[in-house]
Write a structure and sequence with these properties.
two-stranded parallel sheet; globular
């Protein structure tokens, strides 16, 4: 699968987080990596002023690092999650 920098792909990424036990929020902040993870509260905050490419890259990085329970995921979300975590996405 190809990593596309489109709003549709960002929506798919957001759907993956919506099905997980983490809450994804876009807010302003001076995060060195572009995002902040509050693990105790299961909240992920991404800089809302990041461009589309930056937001997608942040979400991909987060998915690769967090232990997420995928038992409640829909099939499409599971497929996208596996492709991201197994590094089978190619840039476009």
């Amino acid at each position: 699968m190809i990593l596309k920098y489109t709003t549709q792909f960002l929506t798919k990424m957001e759907d993956v987080f919506a099905e997980s036990n983490y809450l994804l929020r876009y807010e302003k902040g001076n995060f060195k990596s572009g995002y902040c993870i509050l693990k105790d509260q299961n909240i992920i905050i991404v800089n809302k002023y990041y461009p589309l490419e930056g937001k997608i890259n942040c979400l991909v990085d987060i998915l690769k690092t967090l232990p997420i329970d995928i038992s409640n995921f829909k099939e499409k979300s599971k497929e996208l999650y596996y492709q991201i975590t197994q590094n089978t996405l190619a840039l476009q």
